[in-house]
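User: Run a structure prediction on this.
Assistant: Running it now.
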Amino acid sequence: MTGALMSVSPIAAPFSQIVPLLYGGCFVLLLIQAFRVMGKGYGALRRDDSRQPPGPTVHPELLDDQGNITDEELLTVRFSGREPLTDEDGSQH
């Protein structure tokens, strides 16, 4: 067998032809699946906001035992600017 290619056995010949086809088929199926998954993500961006809640949502701690908004006075804090802290006697920190 000098200079001649080695011949493939009759059993291995069909297998060597099927492997590239199987590999290509799996590649195509995975590629299609990838586009389907990405399409669902892009489709979620295009949806309208009709699934929004019908009204404003209320924090649960503002509701009383019956589920109504409380009439109690609420503590509110507002931060406006950075002023130096002073004590009652006028000394700054």
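The chain is about 40% helix and 0% strand.
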